[in-house]
């Protein structure tokens, strides 16, 4: 199975409003609720494609209960191994403006995790690694979790020879990358914040020097750039896609995981096709299965 | 006891952000959760001032459970007589911009109430009226509740000689007022929408002609205007108040209810002082008890 870790899971709300105007009152014309946090998004894509997937991390309070109930309804072989905590799972609110098609995001911070809960989680994580063919560590850290959390989890996975992918930002990424994960998947902004360089190739090479065995950077409409020990590649769709990019990065992570035993050009093809099929989907964060099949033969991979 | 009806109760979230910028991502620096909906706000003020208060209306789903748990913690003699429903209690999100002190409001629509649930509610309402010294009907209607709901509830109260105050807007106000409530408390915008007149005195007189025995209009920093069979008065604080007006109208309703047996000038004084003490409170929707005592002798009432 593939294990995904979401330390700061969220109940994601999407509010559609006719037009978002600050300092006014809005009637929400459509409200959607779904399990969120990068690792849960990755897991839902993997499970929907039939891959045995286990999610772990924390869930607590009424929002945590709602999240777990929604997760139980997700299609495919997805197992919930979230650890109950006394704090309350955060909400995120994505306000979509129907007039402009743009999104404004509001993210709660997350629950205070106690030292005992963090210790219980690391025990659970080590147990789950036994059956894991790969593990993805995804997203932000809730208050109370040590800033070096991902570095610790990367080392635990590597000690057990489980390939580990890290997808986070800021200081947790900086520290996590130093523990030598097999792969990091930053976006352009995260890569620039890490390295100080806004030139993706230069920044990805710098990220490798910081400890990542490989770097697969998601560059939005410009596809993905991979810098690895086997070579450097750029993968793109034939033309820029129209749609909602929410969740495209998480789908790219799912693609990198499910094609983990394939050569890099094919791995990138899967990742870019899944990301593009997510942009194409009418529902934010879901991927369009037919578009995914259509797009697979269209992705161009260029060695650099 | 005083009965307040909140057909579209809400779990009110207040999100503080450093600055609200559409089309960007925000970290919520403070997230507060409280029971909401006008009738619940009115009830919390009454109970905090020691008045026996019963709340009814609908609550359902995980948000409904959270709302009821929070309500149980409210100070004072407040009894929860909300009716459980299969739908889910709505959320509202007030996004406060710390840089400008302004608020942007996002309101979910509310649960679909079935005809059976509405019938069960009207039975419950009639039972509760037996012990009620006054009843307030407050706020918007959730989907499924007939648009003439307030007209029906006004008639039931009047048939049992329970004084009834109506605080709503739009079509439910238009229909409710025709059933001859003892008092309506529109704000300036609601009054203008009802009557087509933006001149408050003219509009309030028109509202009386439409069926309300008395009209007490809340005019924000301009205080209140009452048009009654005993006379017409204007009540104001000595100077405009700085602060957050959220909930001030609901506190005014609480003041009108608790002083229901006093002459109109004293009744307006209570309403304006409570509203002003709510504007003064650092927490949106709460009133500052010390400010309330301070403000009571300062309110000026002028016969017109």
UniProtKB/TrEMBL annotation, chains A, B:
Belongs to the carbohydrate kinase PfkB family. Keywords: ATP-binding, Kinase, Nucleotide-binding, Transferase. It holds the Pfam family PfkB. Signal peptide: none annotated. InterPro entries: Carboh/pur_kinase_PfkB_CS, PfkB_dom, Ribokinase-like, Tagatose/fructose_Pkinase. Residues 11-285 form the Carbohydrate kinase PfkB domain. It comes from Streptomyces luteosporeus. This is 1-phosphofructokinase family hexose kinase. The lineage of its organism: Bacteria, Bacillati, Actinomycetota, Actinomycetes, Kitasatosporales.
